[in-house]
Specification:
Elements: H1 5-11, E1 19-20, H2 21-30, H3 35-42, E2 48-49, H4 52-58, H5 67-76, H6 93-98
Antiparallel strand pairs: 1-2
Helix pairs in contact: 2-3, 4-5
Length: 104
């Protein structure tokens, strides 16, 4: 499941940061968040989040997500138990556009 930034923001109003996953879920339920938003919050790592931007980067988002949010979300997603060097990382945007180092 995924949510959008507006619904997530509404679900997490009045959260006192830093907040952990359980606090975020409790606040979302108190604010009567929709099922998709609560389900999306359940997918985040059980760590302490310093601010809303940290949470937004960890929650699966639907349309309307900025490129910065998408990049942050990609950085947050790793498989448990894998070294960072073994996780999938996106290519640098210049490499995507121009290809690998062409001898420059």
């Amino acid at each position: 499941m995924a949510t959008d930034r507006r619904r997530l923001k509404n679900a997490l109003t009045d959260v006192d940061y830093p907040a952990d996953k359980d606090e975020l879920l409790a606040r979302a339920r108190l604010n009567e968040a929709d099922t998709e938003t609560v389900t999306a919050l359940r997918t985040v790592q059980p760590v302490s989040y310093a601010n809303f931007a940290d949470v937004a980067g960890a929650v699966p988002m639907t349309e309307g997500q900025s490129d910065a949010d998408k990049a942050e979300q990609d950085r947050q997603r790793t498989q448990d138990g894998l070294a960072e060097s073994h996780t999938e990382t996106p290519d640098h945007p210049i490499v995507e556009e121009l290809g690998e180092n062409r001898g420059s």
